Amino acid sequence: MGVLDNLEPKSVFHFFEEITQIPHGSNNVQMISDYLVKFAKDRNLEYIQDETRNVIIFGEASEGYEDREPIILQGHMDMVAVHDADYDIDMATQPLKPVTDGDKIWAEGTSLGGDDGIAVAYCLALLDSKTIPHPRLEVVITTNEETGMDGAFAIDLSPLKGRKLINIDSETEGVLLTSCAGGARFYATLPVSKVSRSGMLYDIEVSGLLGGHSGTEIIKEHGNANILLGRILAAVSDKNDISLVSINGGVADNAIPVNAKATIVVPEDTSKEAALKAVKDLEAIVKSELEIKDPGVKFTVTAREKGTFDCLDNASMKNVYKLILSLPNGIQAMSASVPGLVETSLNLGVIVSSDNEVTLEYAVRSSVDSSKDALLDRLVYITEAFGAKAKITSSYPGWPFKSDSKLREHMIEVFKRMYGREPRIEALHAGVECGLFGQKLEGLDCISIGPDMEGVHTTSEKLSVASAARTFEYLCEVLK
């Protein structure tokens, strides 16, 4: 018996649980891609697996639907794989442990991967069914969406005949997503010099934050652990002779970081009490600032050992925290045309330190391409002013609103018939792959849907069981 076997629809949750047992974090997609190929082979379904490990599976039309236009169903196979700091798991090789109370599904100590495992589960349930009526299905499951939409960039869509695409990568039931922001990834790599210093080694850690998806939840202005760690280093080094050994934080540039840690050396002739007091004083200030937005924020200082350690020299340390605090972060502009919609933002998702450099990794988003480009220019200018190297990758287009959408009209009508009300028509600050697909398939008509999820890209991620069932029922009715 699987953990989710008693949930309905059984086929959807059966495949969803199977997916949780296959490690499939971004850039670790070989196993999940091969699982999809085996699924197709076992059912004698036509399929394509490309060099990027994207998979396309074709399902023949049900009886009586042979003359209908094919429908493209689309999701991505990778997940943001994160775990609690004290949870012992290697997410590259070990399965998740799904848990349910019948109302929600989550994973013990880790993210769940409902984004976008539920899309894959829906598609497999449809392809596996002998009773759900539908036109010919062209199921496209891409790779590494969470780290730059690599699969969508690389995929060859010329075998597809459909020009109506239902993307299943949204997180609110009853919403038809009709446009989204474009984005890019930005890297600022700062060279550092090292010296040897003796003293007491301390770890300073920021934790207790809520985090979240840097697109959908940036509007909540949760605390960013990386930014807060930069503030700590600035506050402690202002009046104390300390040295920085290392600084690391976050797990993905598109996840608002909930943890960050710096290791410092406090020399014997420096007042440890004064240095620690600077951390505690700033913690009180930050707690006040985030009292409503992030009430669980916590700064922890842990003494480790005495000795002599390789550290950043003073100029390098100051360059690190000054660069962190000089580059913009968070909401940059709100939309003038769509009330409540973030237009432009960025998120310092990851800080990584190595022997001779420190790299800051950002997810940049905007629904206005020129604003995105202007923000990227600003990042480059500031980064280069610090003597650091700037790099932009994975720039992807926004998905513009289509005024004449037959697919939208159809899906609105079906929703009204099923639920007695109209769905919400929305734009999204986060990115989905529809913009790239629209560039590859002329005249493509797209809508994005999904069930209720919360805390995606974090260990608090939960999927609503009832919403997942209703959304699948709606999808089936749309296809019928």
From TrEMBL:
It catalyses: Hydrolysis of dipeptides, preferentially hydrophobic dipeptides including prolyl amino acids. Keywords: Cobalt, Hydrolase, Metal-binding, Metalloprotease, Protease, Zinc. Residues 205-291 form the Peptidase M20 dimerisation domain. It holds the Pfam family Peptidase_M20. This is Cytosol non-specific dipeptidase. It comes from the Bacteria. Belongs to the peptidase M20C family. Its cofactor is Zn(2+); Co(2+). It comes from Butyrivibrio fibrisolvens. The lineage of its organism: Bacteria, Bacillati, Bacillota, Clostridia, Lachnospirales. Its EC number is 3.4.13.18. PANTHER family: CYTOSOL NON-SPECIFIC DIPEPTIDASE. One of its GO terms (molecular function) is metal ion binding. GO terms for biological process: proteolysis. GO terms for cellular component: cytosol.
